[in-house]
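User: My collaborator sent over this chain with a note saying "see what the structure looks like." That's all I know about it. Can you take a look?
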Amino acid sequence: MLGQESNVVFLPVEDASHREVAALWETLRMEASAAVHRDQALARAMNSAVLMHASFGHALSHRLAIKLADHDVDRDELLALIYGAYTHTPSLLSAAAADLGAVKDRDPSNTEVLTPFLYFKGFSALQGYRVAHWLWTTGRRHLARHIQSRISETFAIDIHPAAVMGRGIMLDHGSGLVIGETAVVEDEVSILQNVTLGGTGKEIGDRHPKVRRGVLIGAGAKILGNIEIGIGAKVGAGSVVVSPVAPYTSVVGIPARSVGKLHTALPGVTMDQTLNEPEYVI
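Assistant: Without extra context I'll predict from the sequence alone. Here is the result:
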């Protein structure tokens, strides 16, 4: 097991201000223990992934290192790198806890935190991006690009390390997701598979979408250019959005147009993909 084989020395992470991390870690351990109790065949896997570790940071570092290691940057090197990021910037862990909680709360196929922690590539890719973004902002850009490439190869999700992502984000399924360099995705956003937050050509500078809090983006949607998707907006599946979207507005189509009535909730949290007019379902 990696924690026993590695020469990495773990130091305690001072993150007392993020109580959700400790609470989530306790839940994760309880769910892993329950999984072993139900099926002894999972004992080795649950021990390696969760139960042998001293903290959520240890376990998440281990999980990402296993998934993203290759012959260029091996498992132990990545383990030290990722845990070093969590030690230096504990907010990365509280963001990961918020992301994991978001999946538990919003995905109707899942009622726990253990399953997305172990198996959901949207969650894993987002946490890999967070480490790559930390590297990018600290000037280690080639290593950030390496991790971006490994995330793309492993999970089929490509998030530029310079993009800015909030917390409490759910990347549901995630396959085919592309998020460009100057994109911004705020807190409590949910994005389904095959979404592009892209540019409109070879323009340079600030050229990617700004997705505000609580937005829901349906599968296959393409949002192109430096446009704002307002707080609480819904973007329908398969839509192509090339103009700004007002807050609490639903848009569908190619090119996307406003439909239905204004709503007041945050669909990125409620996952409500219906409109106020019964003939529309996005």
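A starting point for your reply to your collaborator: Residues 1-17 have pLDDT under 50 and may be disordered.
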